[in-house]
Structure formats: C-alpha cells, structure tokens
Amino acid sequence: MSDGMKDKAKAIGNKVKGEAKDQWGSATDDSQRKAEGKRDKAKGEAQDTIADVKNKNK
C-alpha cells in the first residue's frame, strides 16, 4: 500500500471518529466532546489533502 493510500485510510478513520464524537457531543450536550470531534474531522481533512498531494506527485 502506498503512502498516499495509507494517508487516505487514516483520513477516513479520523473523519468518521470525529463525526461520531461531534454527534455524541451534540446528543449529550457535551461541548468538550463536540470540540474533540471537530478537531478530529479537521485532522482527517488535512490528512486527506496530504494524501491527494502525495498521489498527484507520483
């Protein structure tokens, strides 16, 4: 598996984890969990962008 594909997989994982935390935070009125979810989603977006650059530069 190429580095770009590994980064894509990590990105998807962080986006899914972030969305789950964000939704759980909303459902339980837990602002800290909601913020963690938003950070995880942002991290996933950054990883996704990095993966795109790596795949494009091949």
Structure, briefly:
With 58 residues, the chain is mainly α. It contains two helices and no strands.
For the sheet with most strands, the description reads: none
The proportion of strand residues reads under 5%
Instruction: Give helix and strand order, one letter per element, not per position.
Output: HH
Low-confidence stretches: none
How many structural domains can be distinguished in the coordinates? 1
Distance between the termini: 14 Å
Overall radius of gyration? 13 Å
**Secondary structure category:** mainly alpha
- Measured as a percent range, the helix fraction is over 70%
Q: What's the mean pLDDT score?
A: 93
Determine the number of helices (DSSP H or I, runs of at least 4 residues).
2
The strand count comes to 0
Shape from CA axes? elongated
Structure, described:
The chain is mainly alpha-helical and about 60 residues long. It has one domain (about 5-55). About 90% of the residues lie in helices and about 0% in strands. It has helices at about 5-30, 30-55. α1 (about 5-30) runs antiparallel to α2 (about 30-55). It is elongated. The two termini are about 15 Å apart. The model has no long low-confidence stretch (mean pLDDT about 95).
Main features:
90% helix; single chain; 58 residues; elongated; 2 helices; mainly alpha; 0% strand
Ordered list of secondary-structure elements with their pairings:
Blueprint: H1 3-28, H2 31-56
